């Protein structure tokens, strides 16, 4: 019998990669920060993440200006916005092609936008200097915030909670950031 097996509390915290030291709780770790570096605009930009590494490219080809493609750092297409009279959004394997106004549905009181991913609703709620993402049905505060969009000196900034990123919300948040900050009308 392993005398150290009692250390496994079964609380879902993964074992430490450092051996005897307990694993860090990722809720205490800082959010992941992604900066959208315009080239020349948000519709053509590089999305830089932790360690100043390129994570995404947002590309609007001048020969096809009605299409904005979102690519991973390896060039794989992740999402597409079709800028038509009624703009369309698609996120491969995550969100079927739909109107951008459905992807980020305006609430009935027009105070926030509702984003649905994998059957779960999330709320993008604007404040004075940012737009923050919360799970629907919980009290919106700094403890429940999943992501936040703001403008910094170097451009648009997306901060996302590590749990939300690991749960697969990062691509949807990147697309939402471009929609919400592009200046284009999508309904």
From TrEMBL:
InterPro entries assigned: DUF6593 (IPR046528)
Where is the DUF6593 domain positioned along the sequence? 41-184
Q: What is this protein called?
A: DUF6593 domain-containing protein
